[in-house]
């Protein structure tokens, strides 16, 4: 499958902040949709959660929608065909017309527990197993599948290679793509001894990066957390510039969260946080537009907010 055409800069459409953040009026090029937030229950006949199909049709009328799969459990150990990814996410991604699907490269099982930050084991046997499932899943989607790197807070047991080497070998073996979460790379570099963000970016094939995630986080109990509850840190902006100087992804997406990650997560809301999101969005668009011109791509024409 070919790399999707460049779209620009967007926001993750997060139901947690719908009550105060005016998504529909934002001057963005696309919205990323969390498929778990709109999918119908697995024990129901519905692909969409009631009311969400019409909602997505309205949201997608003005801008492209990009599918993002979190809890698909596709890299667990059950049958791929039985996972939420295949039973719901595939149909949802096609229904919203997504040009590709971003996908957490995490473990998961039917319990849907303990999978938010459980990366796969970076070992040769797991490389073979995960690549096989990834290739099959991409074929089922019928669109490019891009693996998102995880944030995690201790070394992965049984790892025999660096995460970046695993991700590079995964996309080479499976014929899939990368969804590069720069804040996850930054978080791991802060928390994990020997995890080098510069080495990470030098190891992965940047021409296979379809999408980039930007976010902020905060400190709690001696660890820096990927909680999406603050402005994008300067080191993450620096990594974005570094990537864009060498390759142009198809999209850059900003993430902002409510309180789902942890009870200690700062709850976003109000004028200051709306201004924070607007400022990060403006900076991301400026970076992407400049990079697009350097790579010979015309930036999108946007309405003035």
Give a verbal description of the structure:
- This protein has 305 residues and is of the alpha/beta class.
- It is 36% helix and 15% strand.
- The protein is built from 9 helices and 10 strands.
- It has an 8-stranded parallel barrel with strand order 1-2-3-4-5-6-7-10, surrounded by 6 helices. Strands 8-9 form a two-stranded antiparallel sheet.
- Strand 4, helix 4 (124-141) and strand 5 (145-148) form a beta-alpha-beta unit.
- Helix 5 (163-174) packs parallel to helix 7 and helix 8 (234-246) packs parallel to helix 9.
- The chain is globular, with a radius of gyration of 18 Å.
Percent helix, as a range, is: 25-40%
Largest sheet, if any? 8 strands, parallel, barrel
Q: Would you tell me the structural class of the helices and strands?
A: alpha/beta
Helix-strand pattern, N to C?
A: EEHHEHEHEHEHHEEEHEH
Question: Could you give the topology of this structure?
Answer:
Layout: E1 8-13, E2 30-34, H1 35-38, H2 52-60, E3 65-69, H3 84-95, E4 101-104, H4 124-141, E5 145-148, H5 163-174, E6 177-181, H6 182-191, H7 197-203, E7 209-214, E8 218-220, E9 223-225, H8 234-246, E10 251-254, H9 271-294
Parallel strand pairs: 1-2, 1-10, 2-3, 3-4, 4-5, 5-6, 6-7, 7-10
Antiparallel strand pairs: 8-9
Helix pairs in contact: 4-5, 5-7, 8-9
In short:
This protein is of the alpha/beta class and 305 residues long. Helix content is 36%, strand content 15%.
List key phrases describing it.
single chain, 305 residues, alpha/beta, 8-stranded parallel beta barrel, two-stranded antiparallel ribbon, 9 helices, 15% strand, globular
């Amino acid at each position: 499958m070919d790399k999707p055409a460049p779209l620009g800069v967007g926001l993750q459409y997060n139901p947690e902040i719908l009550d105060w953040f005016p998504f529909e009026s934002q001057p963005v090029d696309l919205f990323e949709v969390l498929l778990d937030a709109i999918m119908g229950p697995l024990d129901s006949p519905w692909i969409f959660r009631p009311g969400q199909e019409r909602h997505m049709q309205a949201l997608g009328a003005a801008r492209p929608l990009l599918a993002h799969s979190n809890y698909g459990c596709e890299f667990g150990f059950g049958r791929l065909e039985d996972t939420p990814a295949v039973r719901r996410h595939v149909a949802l991604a096609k229904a919203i017309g997504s040009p590709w699907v971003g996908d957490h490269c995490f473990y998961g099982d039917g319990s849907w527990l303990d999978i938010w930050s459980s990366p796969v084991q970076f070992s040769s046997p797991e490389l073979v197993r995960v690549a096989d499932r990834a290739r099959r899943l991409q074929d089922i989607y019928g669109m490019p599948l891009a693996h998102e790197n995880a944030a995690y807070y201790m070394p992965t047991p049984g790892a025999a290679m660096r995460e970046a080497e695993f991700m590079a070998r995964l996309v080479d073996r499976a014929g899939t793509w990368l969804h590069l979460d720069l804040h996850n790379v930054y978080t791991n570099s802060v928390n994990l001894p020997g995890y080098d963000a510069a080495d990470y970016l030098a190891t992965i094939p940047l021409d296979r990066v379809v999408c980039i995630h930007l976010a902020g986080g905060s400190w709690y109990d001696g660890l820096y957390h990927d909680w999406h509850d603050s402005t994008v840190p300067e080191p993450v902006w620096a990594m974005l510039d570094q990537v864009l100087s060498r390759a142009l992804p198809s999209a850059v997406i900003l993430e902002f969260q409510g309180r789902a990650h942890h009870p200690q997560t700062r709850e976003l809301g109000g004028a200051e946080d709306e201004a924070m999101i607007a400022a990060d969005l403006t900076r991301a668009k400026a970076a992407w537009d400049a990079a697009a011109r350097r790579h010979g791509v015309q930036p999108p024409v946007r309405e003035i907010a």
